[in-house]
Amino acid sequence: MGARGGGHRLWSGRGAVDALLVYAAHGLRFLAPLLLYPVLTRRFGVEAFGLYVAATALAMIVAVVVDYGASIAGPRDIASARETTGPVVGRTLALRAVLVPPACLIGLGLGLINPVLSGAGDVIGAAVALGVGQGASLLWFFQGMRDPAAAALVEVAAALAAAAVVLATPGLGVGGVLVVQAAGIGLGVVVCAAMMRRRCRPVWPQAGFVRRGLVEGFPLFVGRAVIMAYTGGGGLVVAALAGPAQAAVYGVADRLTAAVGSLLRPLAGLVGPRISTLLSEDAPAAFRTARWSLAVTPLLFLAAAAGLYGAAPAVVRLAVGDGFDEAVGVLRILVFVLPLVAASQVLGLQLMTPLRMDGRLALMVGIGGVATLAPALLLVPVFGATGMGWARILGEAVVVGACLACLRPYWRALFPAGGGRDVPAV
Predict the structure, then answer these.
(1) So where are the chain's domains?
(2) Measured on CA atoms in the order 162, 163, 167, 171, is the torsion positive or negative?
């Protein structure tokens, strides 16, 4: 089936297979939290599970520093330089190695000043190790090569293996669980590194690359850091402002929402590099693809939000058991983040990143971060986890509006008169 005005197919046979494999891997990825959370909430109780939520939020922050925007820019740069991937890979790996020590220091510092984590040095250390492993993920390379399925399956298999060890070892405390999870993530990175080495020989950069890499990657790093501060880091904010019990309540609702929202990540990894390639080959086809994604993706996640809203009591009970009834109300607020995040990811990661609007993307995310964290500082001390939920809704709505404002020069290409029936060139 051809796209009107271009010779690109709607979906190649290889692309369809890759998409199915990636989403199969992502479906398996859900098994780890689905298996762990009911066990950990019962094993730890509300207070200790709140400590676990704060620690995993800390790990996400460390991961953002190690990654330094490579998971966003990497697929784009690899897709744009398929014949010369060695220098891209070498620069990215070298910069990550340089960033590991400061990332660890930042993680230790944030852990020590957080009132929930400050007395648990083993938990802080394990969370930092987990964050380094998460930030070292090599999936970006395979996304840029438009062949992410095998690497995604490897990462999921390693995470599931770690979950199995945790389930089989009831004596593990919070720190022990995090150590096992960090080991699983690390194993996945090692296997993916061997797979990448078979396809690409890294070309290591010359002296002076650090400053250049930090400058070039800074806008995307800031964007990801702010996103993490008000999304994945929400549990850390709630723990600091409302205590571990409210952090546990928020963590349950946030993880359940994130499990559904994470389905956007494979889509971004599949569609984003394709748009990046099309922008240099057939710009109208690139905007057709983005327009199609913008029309379909938020509607799908709005339907998912409606279903999760109705099933919230049963989902919470099934996922974490009794003692977390308050999470039902928080979940029913957070589900409406899903269509907003879907729209912002299509506009931001799938379109603005290929257009190399990194500076505007960072500014947009920064505005969204302020629109989330400022209300959170007022709402969370009074309303706890519920206040953080409403702050997230406000922040995500602002991000969507900021995305549209940043893309105003491209409105005619993105929303042409009479172009709504064109099919994507995926």
Answers:
(1) 13-414
(2) positive
pTM comes to: 0.69
Question: Counting beta carbons within 10 angstroms of the beta carbon of residue 179, is it exposed (0 to 12), middle (13 to 18) or buried (19 or more)?
Answer: buried
For residue 383, give every residue at least 6 positions away whose Cβ sits within 8 Å of its Cβ, in sequence order, or none. 390
The whole-angstrom separation of Cα 91 and Cα 87 is 6
Q: Please name the amino acid found at residue 238.
A: V
Residues in the chain: 426
| Distances, alpha carbon 246 to alpha carbons 129, 278, 281, 324, in Å | 25, 46, 51, 10
Give the pLDDT confidence of 279-331 residue by residue, as tens digits.
777 888 888 888 888 888 889 889 989 999 999 999 888 878 777 889 999 99
Give one word for 416, left, alpha or beta, with left for phi > 0 and alpha for psi -120 to 50: beta
Bigger pLDDT: 131 vs 231: 131
φ, ψ (nearest 5 deg) of residue 9: -85, 155
Find the Cα–Cα–Cα–Cα dihedral 91, 92, 98, 99, rounded to 10°.
150
Start-to-end CA span in the chain (Å): 11
| Residue found under tokens 């891997």 | 25
For 3, 228, 345, 372, the CA distances from 403, given in Å and listed in that order, are 26, 18, 9, 16
- Could you read off the pLDDT of 164-176 as tens digits, one per residue? 999 999 989 999 9
Q: What is the DSSP string of 240-260?
A: HHH-HHHHHHHHHHHHHHHHH
Residues 262 and 248: their CA atoms lie apart, in Å, by 20
Residue pair 131/59 in contact by the 8 Å Cβ criterion: yes
Query: What distance in Å separates the CA atoms of residue 385 and residue 397, rounded to the nearest whole number?
Result: 19
Q: Which residues pair with 9 in a beta bridge?
A: 2
